[in-house]
Write a structure and sequence with these properties.
Blueprint (H helix, E strand, L loop, with lengths): L3 H4 L7 H16 L22 E5 L2 E5 L6 E3 L4 H7 L6 E3 L12 H9 L6 E3 L9 H7 L3 E3 L7 H7 L5 E2 L10 H11 L3 H21 L7 E9 L2 E5 L4 H8 L3 E2 L14 E5 L10 E6 L2 H9 L1 H4 L2 H4 L3 E5 L1 H8 L5 H17 L4
Parallel strand pairs: 3-6, 4-5, 6-7, 8-10, 8-12, 12-13
Antiparallel strand pairs: 1-2, 8-9, 9-11
Length: about 350
């Protein structure tokens, strides 16, 4: 699995080739034509907010005239929020990393079954930054939710010809799970339900923290190892770091950050500089245990006090990586109660 911003460096732009097709289709989309074969209608209860509603993002403002019935999502997490609020999207990203045979993440698959819905159109391109505009046209959405994504201004402008687009409020890939839920709740007319779900999830996190007081004030650095000879260190603007901070832990990445204004949610650190990592715990994600073991066996990694002292708490398994990398109101309950004991065991070894 690669960080979204890094994946976007080599994208191919096809916007000009399909713009005319989008414009031609937009009128049909906005009239709410019936679903095509194989698509799934959104299902929801009556909204709690009034419409029209306007949501302003870093890329522009989206006005949603009435409660959406055909919801499409892009990026990470938006489909989780929509499903948690009782809405099955007509289209959402396909997750070849961490998903089932169809490309649906396990907590999403469970929720779709619970709601009695059908598998949505699965949008290609979730592992790149290229947006599948044609698939969005085919889905005929009346809103596109992408509050945690890497949409560019061109992407946003093109998608906005299909339906109102709700993008990130400030920076790409830097929207907390709470803000994602709040934004999606507002877009769907379900702000009250969203607030209740946030409180329930916050309470569950607080309960886990109370049951594991050893985590309080323990420092950590959160890394990934996707390229030889270096690690990526996640800044505290990243939701995966913020989730551990909610457990009472303290991010220690700032001391390693030579350019904190760089704008990305992570920075690179060469293995030769791993001796500069000064934290109680080291956290990182790996597709499988073999990858975690291979990383930990590297001489410069093995020499780190956190690793040598048994204070390395890897997140292992593709589904668990996705659940923790894009925490949401659905994925947090799915993974956190299983991972916290591992964190606590590592924290217990802090002298």
């Amino acid at each position: 699995m690669l960080e979204p911003v890094a994946r976007g460096r080599h994208r191919r732009s096809r916007i000009a080739l399909i713009a005319s097709a989008i414009v031609a289709s937009a009128a049909l989309v906005l009239t709410g034509c019936s679903a095509g074969a194989g698509s799934a209608e959104s299902t929801s209860s009556s909204g709690t907010d009034s419409f029209p509603v306007t949501i302003t993002s870093a890329l522009g403002s989206a006005t949603i005239e009435k409660a959406p019935t055909r919801v499409a999502t892009w990026g990470w997490g938006a489909q989780d929020a929509a499903l948690a609020l009782g809405v099955v999207p007509v289209a959402m990203p396909k997750n070849t990393y961490g998903g089932n045979a169809d490309g649906v993440l396990p907590w999403d698959a469970d929720r779709i079954t619970e709601l009695g819905g059908k598998t949505p159109i699965l949008l290609n391109g979730t592992d790149t930054s290229e947006v599948p505009f044609e698939q969005f046209v085919a889905a005929k959405p009346d809103v596109i939710l992408a509050p945690y994504s890497g949409l560019t201004q061109k992407d946003y402008d093109t998608l906005s010809k299909i339906a109102p687009v709700v993008a990130y409020p400030k920076d790409p890939w830097a929207t907390s799970w709470q803000d994602q839920l709040s934004i999606v709740g507002k877009a769907l007319g379900k702000s009250t339900e969203a607030a209740a779900l946030q409180k329930k999830t916050d309470d569950e996190i607080a309960s886990l923290a109370a049951k594991n007081p050893v985590l309080k004030d323990k420092s950590f650095v959160y890394i990934s190892s996707n390229e030889p000879g270096q690690v990526n260190v996640f800044r505290n603007t990243d939701p995966r770091v913020q989730l551990l901070e909610q457990l009472g832990m303290k991010d220690a990445s700032a001391a390693l950050d030579t350019d904190p204004t760089a704008g990305s949610y992570f920075f690179s650190l060469s293995n030769e500089n791993l001796d500069k990592v000064d934290s109680d715990l080291l956290v990182g994600y790996f597709a499988d245990q073999a990858a975690a073991d291979t990383f930990a066996a590297q001489p410069l990694v093995a020499a780190m006090p956190t690793v040598a002292g048994g204070r390395f708490a890897p997140i292992v398994g593709e589904s668990f990586v996705m659940a923790s990398s894009a925490p949401s109101v659905l994925s947090i309950p799915w993974m956190l109660d299983k991972y916290v004991p591992q964190l606590a065991a590592a924290a217990d070894k802090v002298k």
